[in-house]
Specification:
Helices cover 35% and strands 30% of the residues. The protein is of the alpha/beta class. The strands form 5 sheets. It has a 6-stranded mixed sheet with strand order 11-6-1-2-3-19. Strands 14-13-12-17-18 form a 5-stranded mixed sheet, with helices on both faces. Strands 7-10-8-9 form a 4-stranded antiparallel sheet. Helix 4 packs across helix 11 and helix 6 packs antiparallel against helix 8.
């Protein structure tokens, strides 16, 4: 058995699966994945809890499997969250320097950060992350640490991610019902980027797209800091629904066809090809046109990338993504998904691989585990840099910004 202080557990309660990843934090801060548990998700829709009893059972099954593989008792987790209620935006805080010598102190920095967090959010919303970007001193921007500098006006830019408090608490409650503590919550898109992006990619500018079953999360990092984030309530389940409707098939059969015969692009080689589905469970034999199947899939996946492209174009970020697009999630397994992303976004796209993490190769090489592995890395930062917490479970805030700058 491992010392509980050396263990960090990431838990992702997704639309398609529940995944628990156990990581051992070495004394030097390195991570080693020692256990993975997963279960089919039945109580979640579009990334949010819809049936607490079923979701609780699925979480229990995933946690037990992870415990058995890692030979540990899981007492707490770092919980990933998503959903249409989550929003990300950039905000600036301003603080005048009033000391006689005009030298900026650590207290001045804290006051500027507090002012950046003092934003007008809906009363029922909670700040999940307030990620520090950079400071501005008397108009000089790009400053990472202004302590000790002289100036009259200190400003700080932060990327704020917030969501509906009650909907966040629903996810926390199902974990708590199992007598497992939620150490903190984290946005799945941020967690995936922690797992996948190298220091060079963070600096050059990269877009991480997590293609899940019910949602697609995305996050932009450039110049070593988080620039943009968002959630689309569209994912792999919508592709399956489109196929069921377009091909006039039961949803289960459409899902299996997507896995066995699907692709993100229509290959000219399949034109005219058909596939015969045998009769099953009272449904008659049916002939499927493969070109039609792949065109349906391609159109839905193209729509996802087009929405992201429009968002990033409005934020003037497309030209800053010199490291291209990194794909993860179950949707990253779709054949030719990289080529489609490249076509739509006009950027090089690759399926992501976890960075600076060792351990179970079977987990590290699977794109659908990226967010859960990132939650483990998030937890290791929590253990290393934060001493205490109180009240509503909150995420690492400005320390995550430091991670993106320093790796």
């Amino acid at each position: 058995m491992f010392d509980a202080s050396e263990i960090a557990v990431g838990l992702e309660v997704g639309t398609s699966k529940v995944c628990a990843v156990v990581g051992e934090v070495n004394p030097d801060g390195a991570l080693n994945v020692i256990g993975v548990g997963q279960a089919r998700s039945r109580g979640v829709r579009k990334g949010e809890i819809t049936d607490p009893a079923l979701a609780e059972e699925d979480v229990r099954n995933a946690v037990v499997e992870a415990e058995q593989m890692a030979d540990v008792e899981i007492r707490s987790v770092y919980l990933g969250v998503t959903g249409s209620h989550l929003r990300g935006f950039n905000n600036r805080g301003v603080h005048p320097i009033v000391s006689a010598d005009r030298m900026i102190s650590a207290e001045d920095v804290q006051d500027a950060v507090k002012n950046a967090k003092a934003i007008n959010l809906p009363a029922d919303h909670h700040v999940v992350h307030a990620v520090r970007q950079h400071f501005v001193v008397d108009g000089q921007d790009g400053i990472h640490n202004p302590v000790g500098m002289h100036g009259a006006r200190l400003e700080v830019d932060m990327h704020v991610i917030h969501g509906n408090a009650n909907r966040l608490k629903n996810a926390i409650a199902i974990v708590g019902a199992l007598q497992i503590e939620v150490e903190t919550i984290a946005f799945n898109g941020l967690a995936a980027s922690l797992a996948l992006l190298s220091n060079e990619q963070k600096e050059l500018g990269a877009l991480v797209v997590d293609l899940g079953g019910g949602t697609t999360e995305y996050l932009v990092c450039a110049g070593g800091i988080v620039k943009h984030s968002g959630v689309l309530t569209v994912g792999g389940d919508h592709v399956s629904n489109d196929l069921a409707y377009g091909l006039k098939l039961p949803l289960g059969r459409a899902e299996q066809l997507k896995i066995d015969q699907g692709a993100a692009l229509v290959d000219p080689a399949v034109r005219g090809q058909t596939l015969t589905l045998p009769s099953k469970l009272g449904f008659p034999e049916k002939t499927i046109n493969l070109e039609h199947l792949r065109r349906i899939m391609s159109l839905r996946l193209q729509e996802i990338f087009e929405i992201i492209r429009e968002e990033l174009a409005q934020a003037d970020l497309l030209e800053r993504l010199r490291a291209g697009v990194v794909l993860c999630g179950g949707g990253a397994r779709v054949p030719q998904i990289e080529q489609l992303a490249t076509q739509v976004l006009d950027l090089p796209a690759t399926v992501g691989r976890t960075q600076t993490i060792s351990g179970l190769k079977s987990a590290l090489d699977q794109p659908e585990f990226a967010a859960a592995i990132g939650l483990v890395k998030f937890g290791s930062l929590q253990k290393k840099r934060r001493k205490g917490r109180a009240g509503f479970p909150v995420a690492l805030k400005e320390t995550i910004g430091q991670f993106f700058r320093r790796g």
